[in-house]
Amino acid sequence: MQDAELAVQIERVFWDRNLGRGISGAREVWRLLKREGIDVARCTVERLMRQLGLRGIRRGKGFVTTRPDDSSTRAPDHVQREFRADRPNELWVVDFTYVPTWPGMAFTAFVTDVFSRRIVGWRTMSRMPTDLPLDALEMALWIRDTAGEDVTGVIQHSDAGSQYTALRYTDRLAEVGAIASIGSVGDSYDNALAETVVGLYKTECVKIDGPFRTADELELATLSWVHWFNENRLHSSIGYLTPIEKENEYYREIHPQQQPQLGELALH
């Protein structure tokens, strides 16, 4: 394929909202092209992207949203910065962030499965009560229950923010047999994977689709981004698969003839 033809394909993949989304770097674009059967060297993709003025987006610095509640009982840290899992629903990490809108700040919380990097729960609200992370947790529980998956024993790791140590939240974890795990306050390494997801969200969704007039607009943009993140985004940490592909691969290996239907993320 000649450079001119390749350039057309590279631009198409880069800007496609279901593929490169206008934010993917040369490595991701190269792998997306390979998935479509377009055989091209990575260095060629890099060269043509430079010529076309196409650049992958880079993450900026994060923001601290954690506020501890010294009166709450803190669970021990069961993770100790070892963010690895051998199966789905072994370890979830949770975090939230804020996003400016015209009337004021809105907030989004996420629940991410460490094994597949899948965002299994999320919630966007115009305020930051305990209900924000609790609603994200409820979505994650619903997604897994709909797929017929047992979450008993899942470790749910967070920082020491008051939203995650609140009695309603910890009681809900206990009801479903989840094990709470809490890192320290303000230490990004103690919840590094969750903060990575937040950083990607700010870079790939908020920066690209914003500014937002309302929390409802932000919620719709988040819905679109989460769907892309789970269904189409290639993750280097799981062998350049999508999170859904990673989970499907796991279930095919343990149940060659039977695989649970993975639930689709829905808007609360």
Automatic annotation (TrEMBL):
GO terms for molecular function: nucleic acid binding. GO terms for biological process: DNA integration. Gene3D superfamilies: Ribonuclease H-like superfamily/Ribonuclease H. InterPro entries: HTH-like_dom, Integrase_cat-core, RNaseH-like_sf, RNaseH_sf, Transpos_IS3, Transposase_IS3/IS150/IS904. Residues 84-251 form the Integrase catalytic domain. Involved in the transposition of the insertion sequence. This is IS3 family transposase. It comes from Agromyces bracchium. The lineage of its organism: Bacteria, Bacillati, Actinomycetota, Actinomycetes, Micrococcales.
